[in-house]
Write a structure and sequence with these properties.
The structure holds four protein chains of four kinds. Chain A is of the alpha/beta class. In chain A, α2 crosses α10, α5 runs parallel beside α6 and α9 packs across α11. By secondary structure, chain B is mainly α. Chain B has a single domain, classed as ABC transporter involved in vitamin B12 uptake, BtuC, CATH 1.10.3470. Chain B is built from 14 helices and four strands. In chain B, strands 1-4 form a two-stranded antiparallel sheet. In chain B, strands 2-3 form a two-stranded antiparallel sheet. In chain B, a hairpin with a 2-residue loop joins β2 and β3. Chain D has one domain: ABC transporter involved in vitamin B12 uptake, BtuC (Orthogonal Bundle), CATH 1.10.3470. Helices cover 74% and strands 4% of the residues of chain D. Chain D has a two-stranded antiparallel ribbon. The chains are: A alpha/beta, B mainly alpha, C alpha/beta, D mainly alpha. Chains in contact: A-B, A-D, B-C, B-D, C-D. At the B-D interface, α6, α12 and α14 of B face α6, α12, α14 and α15 of D. The complex binds adenosine-5'-triphosphate (ATP) (2 copies) and magnesium ion (2 copies).
């Protein structure tokens, strides 16, 4: 890709000023988390003086491929995108590589063995998130022998976060036979469905000890259902969720949720940093993990005030 | 009795009729022509407003990126021409890619997987066609059930996205026909174009094609005229299923993966493309060429949005809506004026 | 014997349409199937050609027992059919409608130019010269009917030709062309089954006839041996004398001098040249002309179904502009279309709903007609027009063609219009009911209603009208006051000679 | 007995009964209804409550379909109405004041009426094919909803607003009462006035209707306005249920479910005859199906298959040809004869 590199350089020079153009293809606007992610990227691009070409794929891989291809024709300097799915990127990324445009993955990884197709990946590890949730549960019930009945609210069937958070969690708890997932259904990552499914769980399951929801929103919906059933969320039923959006953190601080695994959408600043480095030809690590943590109610109270999203 | 020995025949050959003839022949083409003209206008607006929009590759990319949609929309055109609808196409794409990817991953040779993949949609289409014809179930519902079924099956097979690393597939995916430096089309485009041409020819030149129009015009009459209504109808859904499967194969070339969530909402895109191309949803009127234009319109709208580049998610939707609106209303007004 | 049907039985939910009917058809004969509206003629045809399943009985074609599962099979077995109502595809060209299913092909593809050429010849045989590549629905119903006939008579291996009311909207000259074709086929030994409510036509062409009444066989007769009056009484089960009186009655009706509408240079390019026309209260105005002469188009303009692009229209002496049929209705104008299947009935609604539809539309949706009133009105007209079966809750779709026509008429009569425009109101209606309708028109006119009467049957126009507007070439060429010296010949001469009389 | 079998709604009801019965076998306490915090509580009550938005949307859809149209934009309209309501309530100085909340609700529905007019205008005045005309609003409308909420989930804390979707009146869910009122209103509107007849006539044959003097244009516009208004109310219920507006999820794919409900209820998509009771039943079946899948514990992967199978069974059961072919021609023929003799 030497000649291609020159090409990109000249396109840049032709623009007059040395502003970097970044083509970014977002998954969509399917959740509050996602829009916070978008916002973070847009804001930090502006403040970093990077010219951002933003494209929304509305949850479809084909749209994302189209967008990337269009970025290539427009000869942007760097392409970044959050892949809708893990596989199926080799063709279009090869085109980018041939055109000498570096690619950065954000938020979600791809499973292509050819790592030369992208410069780096920045984002979180969903399996790890599931594991963290499981770890907390194991610790919480450490020493007790009674069976623990768990219900799970999965994300959209097939979506990577749903698959990974489910499997990471399952991996951890399977070590102990007292943990039993008695029901697991999709809440489509939305509050309403979370509430609806939980309502039914509450009636069809004689005993529920723990709720594990793949995101805050479903957890928040479920809380409403639990309250309507006359139970106390967080006490009668322990709740674990993932994301740590503001509403979730509020509920956590009120003790309605017991534990949240953070999955930070605020990748913007880190991403812009990488974009600049990549554009300057600096070497960067293959994988940059976002700084993510977990929250208990106490920790939530501390950080709640300056939670932006 | 009336005196019929002096039949006043001369006034029958009216010059007026001759004039009317030329005029009538055109009215059927007006929707397609209007679409074409507006498409050109839209393209020119794009070229005028955005740097690099005028590149040949931009247009070719619309084809490259929508080849599978084009194939699916062609099948949909047939179905809609008979007055039906096929909602299962998006899900069939998902099922095809999932099955293909799973089998390839399991080490099956491409030579076996490919025909199998193509068979999936064809068989499903045949089944839906039979249900629609023999049991008089509404196409909307029969194909909606087909949609649930196909998507459900692919979800059951594997909920994760499966990469395809098979050599044949990779070759097909990366096959490029280059015309010039940086000007190329993919294999998918070639396949899609072949499908379009064949479909258009069949529609215009064969009995099967004409029967489709007849059924769309009036199915009861077609039956009384002694046309093979049932056979044609079943064939049409089978064909649409085949196209969806072929679309699925192209999709798997395009993305090198199989995934149960592929092609979500694609049925609506296909229907929209067909209808924008001037095909009447009630059946009996329209052309495959119109459908091609319809796909181009959708593709071009998306390209414009990408070139605009500063729209956030919601403005993207709103602008797509506005462009669609402007296009359809203009098309409607032009067509109406001409008539 | 080409065809023998024995003991045919067909039951629809709630009706026994055919009960033990026998029917035979000999090669080289023209056989008329006679019966009142709803007698079961069309059903017998549909049973024969496999549109409906049989509930009992047997069919033998050329000595072999057959049971078709659909028209396609029947066609392949050599039965060619024109069903009642035009059953063609409006979205296809005329040529395609004639040839679809058996298009001429070359190199495996349809040979379009050959097809057009053959369509042209095939229509020419019926003395029709139209543009065969134009879409079917750009032509009037009568032309469509001719196209359907052309389709059926152009089949090579036909053994049996079935024509179910093929002449219902044809003019005398077209009927004559059809008969010529029928005679030719007869000479070629084709057996022809012919259904018509025009007794004159039947007596002119048929060799034998079979009479049905209420789904039962009454008998099989030689035409020459059964006088008209006897045939009628066999069909309706009682004697009929009503026909004669109307003629006297209508002609001598007094003419009133209040103008209801007055068209001044009203016209629409491409459909009818500007014309002047005045209609007074209590007057029956007939429109006469040939196929496609513009009668229907004139009527539609007066009703606002199409918009005029020149001239003006006064209603009650004040200028009126109709943007839609609704506007005309508010002025007391009613219009019953000739095309009952696509512009008249609403098949999936019941008889009652179809009848009250126009009245209800006029009242607006907020003021429903009370159910009791509906039943009264509907009952009255079901009786007056002898709609059968006399069940107002039956779907109109399931009624026989003639009865559907009566329903349409009833729809407009209950709105009590001041000007009733009826386009081919007696199309497909049996002799008894036709007389009834004619009497009704005459009566209404006596009561002060103006009637614009359009019919392809010139005698009928002559019998009823006070004055006759003659159209030719989509131009109103002359107005004739219907005095004793006006007769069919005189009108035909007017049309043929092309004298431009009262028109601009 | 045959009469019962022939009734239009027999098969939908039968499927509903089977679904409920399967709960009796496969899940616990499905039929228990208790009094919890002064309101009824139980799975059956959930079905009533959860059906409400779909019933509302299906009602509007029924009217639209009866004219031969279709409305794809209902989901987006739902999203907009919820979003606007939540936005306005968020700006209220006192979100717990019933009057202000009522005003907000009025405003949201008024906006939906405008959208309905828009759809009606495109279809009836410009003569654009309904599916494409409403597709415009389907695409753009969701964008508008996201614009209103800025892509975030808007939370509201308003007791009166909460009542709409999650509250109870005399121990009965308010959302159910709203849906019931809407059904009553629609029935009254279509069957007590002549609207139903005129709709069926327009759907049955637009040309014939025009010539019969029906103002098809006006009626068509009205129908889209109704659909949008009902969708708007559904959107309020949806958002009030969780006291927040999620403009991305609200009403997602509801148009498909609503159309499914309408068709399951025996209304043909080609227009004409419609059955409100059928559509309501269809909506309840779909909700019951969803709830049953969860309560019986159908795995996520197979839920869609489960749904597909039920839909297929119901469709086939409703098809007279299928019954005739499967249960033998003999039975139907005998029944027909008997009926004919009786008549
Ligand atoms: N599909 C149907 N369903 C129910 N009843 C029907 C159906 N078709 C016809 N009938 C009934 O069968 C009887 C015979 O109808 P048919 O159409 O054969 O009459 P016809 O002799 O052709 O009358 P016409 O001269 O008016 O055309 C009528 O009473 C009619 O109502
Ligand atoms: N050669 C033709 N002969 C008759 N009609 C034609 C011919 N060519 C075209 N037409 C079409 O037929 C229609 C004739 O108008 P209209 O329906 O008013 O005729 P009409 O006098 O009512 O005759 P009828 O109904 O008996 O055909 C027009 O719509 C015209 O387009
Ligand atoms: Mg008949
Ligand atoms: Mg006429």
């Amino acid at each position: 890709g030497c000649g291609g590199g020159d090409d990109a350089g000249s396109g840049n020079g032709g623009g007059g000023d040395d502003k970097i153009t970044l083509g970014f293809s977002q998954v969509g606007a399917e959740s509050g988390w996602r829009t916070a992610n978008t916002k973070s990227i847009q804001e930090s691009a502006a403040s970093a003086g990077i010219d951002l070409k933003f494209s929304d794929a509305q949850g479809k891989q084909e749209n994302q491929i189209k967008a990337i291809r269009n970025f290539i024709t427009q000869r942007v300097d760097v392409i970044a995108f959050s892949p809708v799915v893990e596989s199926g990127w080799s063709t279009v990324l090869k085109e980018a590589k041939d055109a000498g445009i570096p690619v950065i993955l954000t938020d979600r990884a791809i499973d292509d063995p050819d790592t030369s197709l992208y410069k780096t990946f920045i984002g979180s590890d969903f399996v790890e998130e599931g594991k963290k949730a499981g770890d907390w549960l194991v610790k919480e019930y450490n020493g007790k022998t009674d069976p623990v009945n768990i219900v799970e609210l999965q994300g959209t069937p097939g979506a990577a976060p749903a698959n990974d958070r489910k499997s990471g969690f399952a991996d951890v708890i399977k070590a102990d036979t007292k943990f039993k997932v008695v029901a697991s259904q999709t809440g489509q990552f939305t509050r309403t469905d979370g509430k609806a499914v939980m309502e039914t769980f509450l009636k069809s399951q004689p005993k529920i000890d723990v709720l594990y929801a793949h995101n805050d929103d479903m957890g928040l919906g479920a809380i409403e259902a639990i309250e309507a059933a006359g139970k106390k969320p967080g006490t009668d039923i322990k709740i674990i969720t993932v994301d740590a959006v503001k509403d979730g953190m509020t509920a956590l601080s009120e003790g309605k949720i017991n534990f949240i695994v953070e999955c930070s959408p605020l990748l913007g600043p880190q991403l812009m940093d990488l974009v600049k480095k990549v554009n300057n030809g600096e070497t960067i690590p293959q994988r940059v993990l976002t700084e993510e943590t977990t929250f208990t109610p106490e920790q939530a109270k501390e950080v709640l005030a300056d939670r932006k999203y | 009795m009336i005196d019929v020995t002096t039949p006043p025949t001369p006034q029958r050959n009216r010059p007026l009729l001759g004039a009317k003839r030329v005029y009538k022949a055109n009215t059927k083409h007006i929707p397609v022509l209007a679409t074409l003209v507006l498409l050109v206008v839209m393209y020119s607006v794009g070229v005028y407003n955005y740097d690099g929009f005028g590149d040949t590759q931009v247009v070719l990319n619309v084809f490259v990126d929508n080849a599978f949609l084009l194939v699916v929309a062609v099948g949909m055109t047939y179905v809609i021409l008979t007055g039906g609808i096929d909602l299962s196409v998006g899900a069939v794409i998902a099922l095809t890619t999932t099955v293909a990817a799973t089998l390839l991953e399991a080490g099956w040779p491409a030579g076996v997987v490919l025909p199998l993949a193509l068979l999936i949609g064809t068989v499903l289409g045949l089944g839906m066609g039979c249900v629609i014809h023999f049991f008089k179930v509404e196409p909307f519902i029969a194909t909606l059930a087909g949609m649930f079924l196909a998507r459900g099956l692919s979800l059951l097979i594997n909920r994760n996205s499966i990469p395809i690393t098979n050599d044949f597939w990779t070759q097909m995916a990366q096959k490029r026909f280059r015309f010039d430096d940086g000007v190329f089309i993919s294999l998918n485009v070639v396949i899609a174009v072949i499908v379009v041409v064949l479909a258009a020819l069949v529609l215009a030149w064969t009995r099967f094609g004409r029967n489709i129009y007849a059924i769309g015009g009036n199915a009861d009459s077609a039956l009384l005229m002694g046309l093979p209504v049932g056979r044609t109808r079943i064939a049409v859904y089978t064909f649409s299923g085949f196209c969806a499967s072929l679309g699925g194969v192209l999709y798997s070339f395009y993305t090198s993966s199989g995934y149960s969530l592929h092609g979500q909402g694609l049925e609506l895109d296909a229907i929209a493309a067909v209808v924008i191309g001037g095909v009447l949803l009630t059946g009996g009127s329209g052309y495959v060429l119109g459908t091609v234009l319809g796909v181009l319109v959708l593709g071009l709208i998306q390209t414009i949005i990408t070139f605009q580049g500063d729209l956030n998610s919601w403005w993207t939707r709103i602008v797509v809506g506005i462009l669609l609106f402007a296009f359809i209303v203009l098309q409607r007004l032009v067509t109406r004026k001409a008539k | 014997m080409v065809l023998q049907m024995t003991g045919i039985r067909k039951v629809f939910p709630g009706v026994v349409a055919l009960d033990g009917v026998d029917f035979r058809l000999l090669p080289g004969e023209i056989h008329a199937l006679m019966g009142e509206n709803g007698a079961g003629k069309s059903t017998l045809i549909k049973v024969l050609t496999g549109v409906y399943d049989i509930d009992g009985g047997q069919i033998e074609l050329a000595g072999e027992q057959v049971r078709f599962t659909g028209p396609l099979q029947a066609q392949q077995a050599g039965i060619s059919t024109v069903y009642q109502e035009v059953n063609l595809c409006p979205n296809l060209s005329v040529a395609e409608n004639i040839f679809i299913g058996r298009e001429p092909r070359r190199f495996g593809r349809i040979h379009w130019s050959e097809m057009r050429k053959r369509a042209h010849t095939s229509l020419a045989r019926l003395d029709l010269d139209i543009d065969v590549s134009a879409q079917l629905d750009s032509y009037s119903l009568a032309i469509q009917q001719m196209v359907a006939i052309a389709r059926a008579t152009d089949v090579g291996n036909t053994k049996v030709l079935i024509l179910d009311e093929p002449t219902s909207s044809l003019d005398a000259s077209e009927v004559e062309q059809l008969f010529a074709v029928m005679r030719r086929l007869k000479d070629e030994n084709v057996a022809i089954l012919f259904v018509s409510h025009f007794l004159d036509q039947v007596y002119e062409i048929a060799d034998r006839m079979t009479v049905l009444r209420n789904g039962r066989l009454i008998g099989e007769y030689r035409t020459a041996e059964l006088p008209q009056m006897q045939l009628v009484s066999k069909m309706i089960g009682k004697d009929l004398e009503a026909l004669e009186q109307i003629e006297e009655h209508a002609r001598e009706a007094p003419r009133q001098e209040t103008k209801i509408i007055e068209a001044k240079g009203l016209g629409r390019t491409g459909s009818i040249a500007p014309f002047d026309l005045t209609i007074h209260a209590g007057e029956v105005v007939g429109l006469a002309g040939l196929l496609g002469s513009g009668r229907t188009e004139l009527a539609r303009l007066l009703f606002g179904a199409d918009r005029p692009d020149s001239g003006e229209l006064d209603v009650d002496g004040t200028p009126a502009k109709f943007h839609s049929p609704r506007d005309a209705m508010t002025k007391g104008i009613a219009f019953s279309s000739e095309n009952r299947r696509t512009e008249g009935i609403i098949g999936e609604l019941t008889v009652r709903e179809n009848i009250i539809l126009a009245l209800q539309a006029a009242r607006g949706w907020t003021r429903p007609i009370p159910r009791r009133r509906q039943d009264e009105l509907v009952d009255k007209y079901v009786k007056a027009l002898q709609i059968r079966p006399a069940d107002p809750e039956r779907l109109v779709r399931d009624l026989s063609g003639g009865n559907q026509q009566k329903v349409l008429l009833a729809r407009w009569l209950i709105t009590e219009p001041r000007l009733l425009i009826i386009d081919e109101p007696t199309r497909g209606i049996d002799v008894g009911a036709k007389a009834e309708i004619q009497r009704l028109v005459a009566e209404l006119a006596d009561g002060g209603m103006a009637v614009l009467f359009v019919s392809a049957e010139l005698e009928e126009v002559l019998r009823l009208s006070h004055k006759i507007e003659v159209l030719r070439d989509r131009r109103l060429v002359e107005e004739l006051v219907n005095t004793d010296d006006v007769d069919a010949d005189r009108i035909m001469q007017t049309i043929a000679s092309g004298t431009t009389g009262a028109t601009p | 007995m045959t009469n019962l079998l022939r009734h239009r709604l027999f098969w939908p009801i039968a499927v509903l009964v089977v679904l409920l019965a399967s709960n009796l076998v496969f899940s616990n306490n499905f039929f228990t209804i208790t009094l919890q915090d002064g309101h009824l509580y139980g799975s059956l009550i959930d079905i009533l409550r959860r059906s409400a938005p779909l019933v509302l949307v299906a009602l509007g859809m029924t009217l639209v379909i009866s004219t031969g149209g279709i409305d794809l934009s209902v989901g987006s309209v739902m999203a907009i109405s919820g979003a606007l309501a939540c936005l306005l309530i968020g700006d209220l100085s006192n979100p717990d004041s019933t009057t202000s909340v009522l005003l907000v609700v009025g405003a949201a529905i008024a906006l939906c009426l405008v959208f309905g007019l828009w759809n009606g205008f495109l279809v009836a005045v410009l003569g654009i094919q309904p599916i494409i005309a409403t597709l415009i609003l389907m695409v753009a409308g969701r964008g508008v909803a996201q614009l209103i909420t800025d892509g975030q989930i808007l939370n509201v804390h308003s007791a009166p607003y909460r009542v709409i979707g999650a509250g109870y009146f005399l121990a009965v869910p308010v959302s159910f009462l709203i849906a019931a009122a809407a059904v009553a209103l629609t029935v009254a509107l279509t069957r007590r006035t002549a609207l139903g007849l005129l709709l069926e006539s327009v759907g049955g044959s637009p040309t014939a209707s025009r010539l019969a003097g029906i103002r098809a244009r006006r009626i068509t516009i009205m129908v889209y306005v109704f659909a949008a208004a009902f969708a708007g109310v559904a959107g309020l219920i949806y958002s009030s249920d969780v006291s927040s507006a999620d403009s991305n999820a609200a009403g997602n794919l509801i148009e498909l479910n609503a159309i499914l409900a309408v068709v399951l209820g025996g209304t043909a998509l080609t227009g004409g005859r419609f059955s409100i009771a059928g559509s309501v039943l269809g909506a309840v079946i779909i909700t019951t199906l969803d709830i049953t899948a969860v309560s019986v514990g159908v795995p996520v992967e197979t839920t869609l298959l489960f749904k597909a199978i039920v839909v297929i069974i119901l469709c086939l059961a409703q098809s007279p040809t299928f019954r005739a072919k499967v249960f033998g021609r003999f039975a139907t023929k005998k029944a027909a004869t008997r009926e004919a003799v009786a008549a």
